[in-house]
């Protein structure tokens, strides 16, 4: 069995558990940058130089073989370039979700199976029951949303040893096992943006092209921006508008039009949506979707609110009608469907109204 070891406490304990259970385990750390110094260093990111060292030390304590796999080219193509192109198209991607889909459970799993491993274990906080993905009991750390893009085949070769544990329990166990990462802070932000400045990262790759910020209610230009890609739906801060709204209330980004390079702003109430259209639906629950509308719940961003809804598959599109309005719903985000704590499918948001 292959244990993907990021260098954090979760993957270290996951590897230790399956080794202790008697599995023949090999640890592997993914090198995701051709120039590791260009990625975030320290405890705030993931996949850093420090992380590879921490992963190796954990493997030594556990007593398992350890290797580093170079995935830099694939990561740059499928995650970094995808991130840039999605923003250029006016969408809001989730790079961690894309990394799980394209790197950890496609590239890595394909290589693992080709080498004779039967499964890949990771430290994700999620639970598998009969091959079906469920939420972690630790709601604050649950990662089923970013795993909701995995296919049934990928899930059939995945193991999540932390499925029934809370983060606090994992840290306590790491300390008992003598793993030095027991108190290591969780990763945050985007690992391939060294200083955490997403707008500057995009500007360096897409350039700066000044465009208007338009008030949706009046049609007036109320400011300018250096590039529409630097904004996200629902954003309130950092707009630098020339004049306040007539009612004195904050304005939010309502839409981003990359062709005209226009950012439209308006009141928070205009952010509310109840109808969502999604592309590329994927069904990974225990059954395929019915032909008629069905009731379920949907999560629209990582660690975001969960909404009751009616969903229906229509050809290659998934239509979702929310029982209560949601705000800040952006094209490019994933909509993950649940029945209770069980994931039944996912799709990519294309529009909302």
From TrEMBL:
Residues of the tRNA-specific 2-thiouridylase MnmA-like central domain: 200-266
Domain tRNA-specific 2-thiouridylase MnmA-like C-terminal: 274-349
Biological process annotations from GO: tRNA wobble position uridine thiolation
InterPro entries: MnmA-like, MnmA-like_C, MnmA-like_central, MnmA-like_central_sf, Rossmann-like_a/b/a_fold
Residues forming the catalytic site: 99 (nucleophile), 191 (cysteine persulfide intermediate)
GO cellular component: cytoplasm
Site (Interaction with tRNA): 124, 333
Region named Interaction with tRNA: 141-143
GO function terms (MF aspect): ATP binding; tRNA binding; tRNA-uridine 2-sulfurtransferase activity
EC number: 2.8.1.13
Keywords per UniProt: ATP-binding, Cytoplasm, Disulfide bond, Nucleotide-binding, RNA-binding, Transferase, tRNA processing, tRNA-binding
Compartment annotation: Cytoplasm
Enzyme class: transferase
Family indicated by similarity: Belongs to the MnmA/TRMU family.
Function in brief: Catalyzes the 2-thiolation of uridine at the wobble position (U34) of tRNA, leading to the formation of s(2)U34.
Protein name in UniProt: tRNA-specific 2-thiouridylase MnmA
Originating organism: Acrocarpospora pleiomorpha
Lineage, broadest ranks: Bacteria, Bacillati, Actinomycetota, Actinomycetes, Streptosporangiales
Gene assigned in the entry: mnmA
């Amino acid at each position: 069995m292959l244990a993907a070891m990021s260098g954090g406490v979760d993957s270290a304990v996951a590897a230790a558990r399956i080794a202790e259970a008697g599995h023949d385990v090999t640890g592997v750390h993914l090198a995701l940058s051709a120039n590791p110094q260009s990625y975030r260093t320290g405890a705030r990111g993931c996949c850093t130089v420090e992380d590879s060292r921490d992963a190796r030390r954990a493997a030594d304590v556990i007593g398992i073989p350890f290797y580093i796999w170079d995935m830099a080219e694939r990561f740059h193509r499928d995650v970094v370039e995808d991130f840039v192109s999605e923003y250029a198209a006016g969408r809001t991607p989730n790079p961690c979700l894309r990394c799980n889909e394209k790197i950890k459970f496609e590239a890595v799993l394909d290589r693992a199976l080709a080498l004779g491993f039967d499964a890949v274990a990771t430290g994700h906080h999620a639970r598998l029951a009969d091959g079906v993905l469920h939420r972690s009991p630790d709601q604050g750390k649950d990662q089923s949303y970013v795993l909701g893009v995995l296919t049934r085949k990928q899930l059939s070769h995945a193991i999540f040893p932390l499925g029934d544990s809370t983060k606090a329990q994992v840290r306590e166990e790491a300390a008992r096992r003598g793993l030095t990462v027991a108190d290591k802070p969780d990763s945050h932000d985007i690992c391939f943006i060294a200083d955490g400045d997403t707008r500057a990262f995009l500007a360096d790759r897409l350039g700066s092209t000044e465009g208007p910020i338009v008030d949706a209610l009046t049609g007036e230009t109320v400011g300018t921006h250096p590039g529409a890609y630097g904004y996200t739906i629902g954003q309130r801060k950092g707009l630098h508008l020339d004049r306040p709204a007539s009612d004195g209330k904050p304005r939010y980004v309502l839409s981003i039009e990359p062709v005209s390079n226009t950012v439209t702003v308006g009141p928070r109430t205009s952010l509310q949506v109840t109808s969502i259209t999604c592309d590329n639906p994927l069904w990974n629950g225990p059954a395929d979707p019915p032909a008629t509308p069905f009731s379920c719940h949907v999560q629209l961003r990582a660690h975001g609110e969960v909404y009751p809804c009616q969903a229906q598959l229509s050809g290659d599109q998934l239509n979702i009608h929310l029982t209560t309005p949601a705000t800040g719903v952006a094209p490019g985000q994933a909509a993950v469907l649940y029945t209770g704590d069980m994931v039944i499918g996912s799709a990519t948001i294309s529009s909302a109204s």
